[in-house]
Amino acid sequence: MNLSFFDQFASPSLLGIPLILISTLFPPLLLPSLNNRWITNRLSTLQSWFIYLITKQLMMPLNKKGHKWALILTSLTILLLTINLLGLLPYTFTPTTQLSMNMALAFPLWLATLLTGLRNQPSTSIGHLLPEGTPTPLIPALVMIETTSLLIRPLALGVRLTANLTAGHLLIQLISTATIVLLPILPTMSILTMMTLLLLTMLEIAVAMIQAYVFVLLLTLYLQENI
Amino acid sequence: GPLSERRLMDVRLGELPAWLATRDISLQGLLEGVQKAWSSYHDKYINVRRGGPAGISMLLAGYCLLSYGWNYQHISKISFLLSL
């Protein structure tokens, strides 16, 4: 069997025109824009409530200076959420399966938290490299370990999102192929596989939402240490 | 009324080329047309006081169809069909 399962992740293009820009910009268009009314329609009310919930949840552990990040973090959450959820529809393209896009999101934001910390409170930021209460002989090793863990953060952020979504989409495609192929041969097995597919789809919806949340949550954690 | 002032839905099929000739085909005109189409769809189906899932579902179904169209060239290739 050819390895065409990975073709779904190819960057879409129509007659040589890359469509990735449209696929990335389309999800935010689905969200209703600000209405200058006191009582808006159902959709806008739901959206306002949801955004309030996200912002409150993200900003609670941060101090006053961290609240400057509220806009970018909330809009990042909404973007990732809509992109991930829209990717579960048939034939759609998920931009977050591209490592390039996730690294482009993760690296600058992580670097911004690091530089904020180094600029405003350099000794505290460097002090995070050594946890309290370490025995003295272990200090050099631990500093190196903490530095490595610090430097690997943007890579981990980007790859986590990419790997989770790519693996999910791939699993869905594999199991649905199995279901279709088994249908004429062993109908019972085919029905069992379809049950697995249903459960997997529900898992994927959950994963789509969780991964978006985790991405931004980790960024707030890095911010907490540094701001 | 005269052809240039009618909306797309009121133009008969035979008059379509003539109607297209009267439209403003500059970039700004196209963008204004897209904006107008989106806001009329949005106000009619989504921006209602007690809306339900129907407005957005139609939009998402249209997006699925569009994505199918974008992918058609790839999924209709025989190498793809044989590998399934």
TrEMBL record, chain A:
Please provide, alphabetically and separated by semicolons, the GO molecular function terms listed in this UniProt record: proton-transporting ATP synthase activity, rotational mechanism
Q: Note the Pfam families from the entry.
A: ATP-synt_A
Instruction: Extract one GO cellular component term from the record.
Output: proton-transporting ATP synthase complex
Q: Assign the protein's first listed, main location to one coarse class.
A: mitochondrion
Keyword Transmembrane helix assigned:
yes
Q: Where in the cell is it found?
A: Mitochondrion inner membrane
Q: Determine if Mitochondrion is one of this entry's keywords.
A: yes
- What does the subunit comment say? Component of the ATP synthase complex composed at least of ATP5F1A/subunit alpha, ATP5F1B/subunit beta, ATP5MC1/subunit c (homooctomer), MT-ATP6/subunit a, MT-ATP8/subunit 8, ATP5ME/subunit e, ATP5MF/subunit f, ATP5MG/subunit g, ATP5MK/subunit k, ATP5MJ/subunit j, ATP5F1C/subunit gamma, ATP5F1D/subunit delta, ATP5F1E/subunit epsilon, ATP5PF/subunit F6, ATP5PB/subunit b, ATP5PD/subunit d, ATP5PO/subunit OSCP.
Q: Which family does it belong to?
A: Belongs to the ATPase A chain family.
- Recorded protein name is ATP synthase subunit a
Q: Which organism is it from?
A: Geococcyx californianus
Q: Which gene encodes it?
A: ATP6
TrEMBL record, chain B:
Where, per UniProt, does this protein localize? Answer: Mitochondrion membrane
The alphabetical list of record keywords is:
ATP synthesis, CF(0), Hydrogen ion transport, Ion transport, Membrane, Mitochondrion, Transport
Give Gene Ontology CC terms.
mitochondrial membrane; proton-transporting ATP synthase complex
Sample GO molecular function, one term: proton-transporting ATP synthase activity, rotational mechanism
Q: Which GO terms describe its biological process?
A: proton motive force-driven mitochondrial ATP synthesis
Q: Could you name the domain of life of the organism this protein comes from?
A: Eukaryota
User: Known PANTHER family for this protein?
Assistant: ATP SYNTHASE F CHAIN, MITOCHONDRIAL-RELATED, ATP SYNTHASE SUBUNIT F, MITOCHONDRIAL
Record's family?
A: Belongs to the ATPase F chain family.
Q: Quote the protein name from its UniProt record.
A: ATPK synthase
- Origin organism of this chain? Geococcyx californianus
